Amino acid sequence: MAMRLSSLFLRTLREDPADAEVPSHRLLVRAGYIRRTSPGIYTWLPLGLRVLRNVERIVREEMDGIGAQEILFPALLPREPYDASGRWTDYGDNIFRLQDRKGNDYLLGPTHEEMFTLAVKDMFSSYKDLPLALYQIQIKYRDEARPRAGILRGREFVMKDSYSFDIDDAGLDVSYQAHRDAYVRIFDRLGFDYVIVQAMSGAMGGSRSEEFLATAVNGEDTYVHCPNCGYAANVEAVQVPTPEPIPYSGLPAAHVEDTPDTPTIDTLVASANAHHPRADGRAWTAADTLKNVIVMLVHPDGTREPLAIGLAGDREVDEKRLGAQVEPARVEAFEEKDFAAHPSLAKGYLGPGVLGSERPSGIRYLLDPRVVPGTAWITGADEHGRHVFDLVAGRDFTADGTIEAAEVRDGDACPSCGSALESARGIEMGHIFQLGRKYAEALGLQVLDEQGKLKTVTMGSYGVGCSRAVACIAEGNHDESGLIWPRNISPADVHVVATGKDEEVHAFAEELTGALEAVGVGVILDDRRAASPGVKFKDAELIGVPTIVVVGRGLADGTIEIKDRRSGERREVRTDSAVSEILAEIGRT
Length: 589
Ligand code: ATP
Ligand code: MG
What we know:
This protein folds into three domains: 18-192 and 435-475, Bira Bifunctional Protein, Domain 2 (BirA Bifunctional Protein, domain 2, 2-Layer Sandwich); 255-402, YbaK protein (Alpha-Beta Complex); 492-585, Rossmann fold (3-Layer(aba) Sandwich), CATH 3.40.50.800. It is globular. With 589 residues, it is of the alpha+beta class. The two termini are 21 Å apart. The longest helix has 22 residues, at 169-190. A hairpin with a 2-residue loop joins β19 (376-383) and β20. Strands 4, 8, 9, 10, 11, 12, 13, 22 and 25 form a nine-stranded mixed beta sheet that branches. Strands 14, 15, 16, 17, 18, 19, 20 and 21 form an eight-stranded mixed beta sheet that branches. A six-stranded mixed beta sheet has the order 1-29-28-30-31-32, with helices on both faces. The chain has 14 helices and 32 strands. It binds adenosine-5'-triphosphate and magnesium ion (MG).
């Protein structure tokens, strides 16, 4: 049935919603696609629901196409499976928890690895049952710390999640590749500009994990890519190439110097150049200093653990890279009171002398991978107003390990070929991930192999943010007047505008709508009698159906107008050939 604007459940807004930061949020609310219910939680209105269903249809077709079978789990889940996997605790504040009348714990599912694992364990028992791929398109709940940009980062959102089950690693590789290929088809059909980047594989180190990022200047994810070799990775996953160690022989001995009032890298470099110039005549720079940053980790069970990070003074700690490394712990600032609780720490003059689990502070100390043995540094001497010069890694100090937490910058060496990396931003649209045996082990998913022996199943997990995709498509397809949907996502194929009050105009618009519907064309018909042509044109542009048909003054001369929403091009066509002209315009013949 055509959607008639005289009766459609729609109110377009002339003003931007006050809380909208990005175009997709602004326009989806103004054009009447979604409406906010509470922070990060949105209601889908008729137009929005059509768009969401179109995204889901494409995702569903491609999942079915690789032989994945659709099922549907409840969103309301019991605690026990999530206890078994450890995620009841690990998710911390990020899940919605609730209790039934008997006091039993439940959660609203943030993702369903546990449930799929248990379902397969429940029903299948032999290698002959594998490989298997299952999926669902379902509403997920995450109590995001910062819900943002409307449906882009919601606390309730629609995700397609699928899971593959294989008897061995070779099988997992095949399942993973099938999903990867399907994702390429999905994102091509959704009309995205996207990149596939290496992603963090979390605790499962070594397994493959890739993200599909829609390229977007206001995306939350930063990725780097190498124009030379094609390497691309989320900055979270970049592994800095480690330089070769340098022999200690010939390196001067470490010496402590007075450096009063130098609590920052800039003041330290200035003081070093003024009072302790280098023997070789080169000036000291921030890159010669070893900066020691302390943060407070808060583990899911609430325990707090300080962590010190040593890195060259010309780089900052990147919050997201650090966050990804210490997950599921959360990073908080190390505050004055924390310094007070650790008297061995001289704020502003921290050094490897006291940092480390075997050192006076007892604080775990991790180094940037570039701080290799033989590198010499100026760093804090753990006394106010004093620094140590020529302190050599490996010779004069050691740490508890390394950490990938330093910012990655444009021009940094590509880990794969050494060329200069470039950075850009994107929105995570999909994530494919070789889980391996983590969940199968935790929940006891085993099947009998060919020899009749029990074998733990290996799994993959694959997600697409369907509701986020709607926002993302809007983000990439709009102008100052409104949305411009790609054809296969649009809530309708054609938006017919009948202007004026003239009965003949309305009669023809109705007739045309009927004729288009009869050949399977989806129509929005603006049949409002009281609205002015200006209001109708504005609404048509805002709503963003890619083809707008205007039935108005020209009708007297036997013509109507077809307008391309994206290019703005318009052409007049004869009324007697209107249907075939419109079919040609929308790419159907
Ligand atoms: P992010 O890093 O953006 O928080 P994630 O890595 O936690 O996402 P996954 O667990 O990989 O997300 O979920 C699979 C997909 O679900 C993501 O690729 C994304 O498209 C979508 N998604 C995740 N969180 C949200 C959210 N809060 N709102 C909308 N879509 C989301
Ligand atoms: Mg992800």
